[in-house]
Fold:
Amino acid sequence: MDKFTQKYVDGFMSDLIARNPGEPEFHQAVREVVENVAPYITAYPHLMDLKIMERIAEPERVIMFRVPWMDDRGVVQINRGYRVQMNSAIGPYKGGIRFHASVNLSIMKFLAFEQTFKNALTTLPMGGAKGGSDFNPRGKSDAEVMRFCQSFMTELQRHIGQDTDVPAGDIGVGGREIGYLFGQYKRLRDEFTGTLTGKGLAWGGSLLRPEATGYGLCYFAEQMLATRGESFKDKTVLVSGAGNVAQYAAKKAVSLGAKVVTMSDSDGFIHDPEGLNEEKLAYIFELKNIRRGRISEYASRFPSAKYYPGERPWRIPCDIALPCATQNEIEKADAEKLVAGGCFCVAEGANMPSTPEAIAIFLGNKLLYSPGKASNAGGVATSGLEMSQNSMRRKWTAEEVDEQLRRIMSDIHAACLKYGTCEDGYVNYVKGANIAGFIKVAGAMVDQGLV
Ligand code: NDP
Ligand code: 2IT
Structure:
């Protein structure tokens, strides 16, 4: 980076941090993008004059609200709700809703920022947003989750709509929660529209939306592997998480011939050296989606596995790692362990699971490494396909959706190659994804004037 560009990055980041104090995840997400796009911005001075990057890093709107509800004992509970509407340059705001005790404004803003670039990469017309609450669904009854969702939507409904802002699921928000949120939206607004995605198949949902993030991740990883003449066949794969993304990533990797040896949750991980198979996957789906149990139970059910409480999977030797749990779950020491254990491909299913120090290790060792905004975009892309089907009042077959998902992941991969291929032939997918996403969003903002 030349001196002028470095000065631009330093000035940009110090202003951003001063304007947004106490938001480390947001700073982290913005810094990565700014470092990659700064040479492009300084080469096109009109982008500097129009303050395009400053505008992209300033949410168009942030909504924060009280969510009061009553638990099963009759005790009043208060949570905080959020919707960060980051950027609508290329389409209505679009992005998931997260229910997790850790949710705060920094996490919401980093996710909405990442979503803006991810959605641009999907080739579909969707702007970027994220929402959620510090509500912790763990241990709550169905009735409590329903009352919470109804209260949350009672406020959120006035800010969303099928042409305005279309939420979906994320951590802690799956089919059950989308159902309760949709029911309350429909009741209050008296309209049956595609305002939420991830809906049930009987009421406007798309085939393959539940599978889409994990499947799309594997389709993307297949393309990365193919650049080195490799595939999933007979590879040892580490998966973290045991939720929606992790389950379908594991299922697809197994179907492509891989040996998936780990899954995790926030309490620890299981290592099954024999690898997951259909029976074990079915057990995990039932354990996590129906019984809402803990991954530790897997080791009691299958003696080939061992449970490691309080640990992450990254020290287990592998060929491929698919982090599918949460942000910053791979730190520098974890990245070093992955490299030492033989890992040559890391494809992110979660949003920002690797810290900047971990990413530096991956890039420095020339691993195949893809950021979540590229490799997990299949989920929101299929949400976009759900929106299309809702608008047309039609339903595509699973084959039709799968074909479009594969094409979109392949287009995203091509965009990463176009903007991320270095002089020595190494593909920097981070740079490729950030520049490709930026060019699309920035171009639309220039066209639309100072708004
Ligand atoms: P789920 O709620 O279905 O699953 C989340 C999994 O990650 C659970 O196993 C959970 O364990 C674990 N987890 C959550 N928080 C932490 C934490 N702080 N430390 C360790 N483990 C944790 O969520 P999803 O599968 O939908 O989301 C996983 C990741 O993928 C997130 O980063 C999300 O933003 C991203 N993503 C999701 C998409 C989607 O369509 N759902 C699309 C694109 C990205 P526990 O049960 O203990 O909480
Ligand atoms: O992070 C993500 O891309 C999601 N949680 C999915 C968003 C969506 O609108 O489907």
Observations:
- Residues 100, 169-172, 174, 213, 241-246, 265-267, 324-326, 329, 349-351, 376, 379 surround NDP (ligand 1) (CB under 6 Å).
